[in-house]
Amino acid sequence: MGAGKSCIGRNLAQHFDVPFIDADREIEEAAGCCVADIFEIYGEAAFRDGERRVIKRILEGEPCILATGGGAFMNRETRKLIGKTGTSLWLKADLEVLIKRTTGRKHRPLLNQGNPAKILRKLVEERYPVYAEADITVETRDETQDTTVARVIATLDELSRTYDD
Ligand SMILES: Nc1ncnc2c1ncn2[C@@H]1O[C@H](COP(=O)(O)OP(=O)(O)O)[C@@H](O)[C@H]1O
Ligand SMILES: O=C(O)C1=C[C@@H](OP(=O)(O)O)[C@@H](O)[C@H](O)C1
Ligand SMILES: [Mg+2]
User: Fold this and answer.
1) pLDDT reported for residue 163
2) pTM, 2 dp
3) Which ligand is nearest to the CA of 120?
4) I need a labelling partner for 119 at 20 to 30 A (CA). Which of 15, 70, 96, 139 fits?
5) Is 24 annotated as a binding residue?
6) Which CATH topology does 5-153 take?
7) Ligand 1 within 6 A of 151 CB?
8) Nearest C-alpha to atom 7 of ligand 2 is from which residue?
């Protein structure tokens, strides 16, 4: 949450001229309400179930850049499917950066359940070892979106040169 998956993913899709899909927006469309309302009305378990199904459908579709929600990669089945059909990229941010980028934003229900900084610290501890299984890791720091996008593109360019050699 706050790493920039949605913003940077959209930018990258424009750069590479491929479709961009945000899994959270797809879930909201299917449910007819926003993520916060899905959590409130149906509960987190129902959201996770919808998230798993929506991501599976997207991965079975046309090639695209997909921004998942921060919890999606924690699902073993989703992780396996991403590994089989796609290339995963972890936008890795320090806790401080995540706090700065999420402060004052109310649309992430998990951060409204207590002290957001504490919740984010716990999630970083739980999730980062699993996120480390991603194919590619790119750091995102306290910097402009353009700087992060440029770092991702440079990393991908370097990797494609490595594969070409
Ligand atoms: N370098 C950066 N990369 C990505 N987002 C940034 C950056 N700097 C500031 N931001 C802000 O941080 C927030 C990231 O949110 P978002 O893209 O929704 O992240 P996620 O989808 O990972 O939760 C946005 O409000 C964006 O404007
Ligand atoms: O980390 C999480 O568990 C979540 C992250 C959110 O997406 P972003 O990571 O795009 O904010 C959204 O899917 C939901 O609020 C749960
Ligand atoms: Mg997002």
Assistant:
1) 80
2) 0.97
3) 2
4) 139
5) yes
6) Rossmann fold (3.40.50)
7) no
8) 69
Tokens of 59: 């991965």
User: Is the CB of residue 75 below 6 angstroms from any atom belonging to ligand 1?
Assistant: no
* C-alpha of residue 69 to centroid of ligand 2, in Å: 4
Residue in the block written with tokens 């919740």: 119
pLDDT at 165: 74
Token representation of residue 163? 């594969």
Report the complex ipTM: 0.99
Residue 30, Cβ neighbours under 10 Å: how many? Answer: 13
Q: Which ligand is nearest to the CA of 39?
A: 2
CA distance 150 to 12: 9
**Of 160, 149, 147, 118, residue with least CA distance to 9:** 149
Domains of the chain, by residue range, sit at 5-153
